[in-house]
Amino acid sequence: MPLTMKGFFLTVEGIEGSGKTTQIQRLAKLLRAHGQNCVVTKEPGGTPIGDRVRAILLDPQAEGMDPAVELFLLAASRRQHVIDVIQPALEAGATVLCDRFADASVAYQGFGRAIELQRIRDLNEWATSGIYPDLTVIFDLSEAEGLERARRRNAKENLYAESRLEGEDLAFHRRVREGYLAIAKEDDRRFAVVDAAAGIDEVFERFKALLSARAPKLKLTAAEGS
Prior knowledge:
Helices cover 56% and strands 12% of the residues. The protein is of the alpha/beta class. Helix 2 (48-58) packs antiparallel against helix 3 (67-91), helix 3 runs parallel beside helix 5 (117-128) and helix 4 packs antiparallel against helix 5 (117-128).
C-alpha cells in the first residue's frame, strides 16, 4: 500500500455462506461503539455503478456469461470502488472493512473458472492502483456446508435475484475454497484463516482474537476492555 495511505484496510473473504458478512458487520459495530471511524463496503458493489454491475453478475438469469466477461465486470466495478470509496477513506485515515476484494477474483475466476492466475493479478493491479489490504481474513468451512447455508439464507431473505453463484455445482465451490486456502498459504504475512464451522458468537471470538494479534492498529483489545 502506498505510504500516503493513513488508514487501515481489512478485507474478509470466503466461499458462499461462510458468514463473513455477518462477522464484518459485528466488527464494525464494536469499533464504532468505541469511537473508531469505520467505512464498511463490499464487492461486487460499493458504489452506484458497482451496484448495477453486481446486479448483472449475481443475476441467476445471466446464464452463459463467459468467465472473462465476469472477470472484466468485476474489475470495472473494483476500479470505481477504489477511486470513489476505498482510496479516499484510507487517505483520510479511516479503517476500511471490505467484504471481498481483489483476492476474490483469484479464488473465483482463477481457481473456480480456470482463468490464468497471472492475468487476474495483472488486471487487479491495474484496477486497484496497487492498493492491497493490510490484512485479509478468510472465513473457511466446507463447501457443502457453505452452500447449504447460503441457500437457506437466500430462501429466508428472498435473495433469489442474487443467487447465480449458489447455482454452481459443488465442485466449483470446492475449487474456490481450495483457491482461498492456496493463496493464504502463499503469503501468511497478509492472510489469516479463521475456522468458520461454528456458531456466530464463537466465530466472532476467534475473529477478534486474531485481529488483536495481527491488527494492533485497530486497538481492538482496548475497545473490548473499555
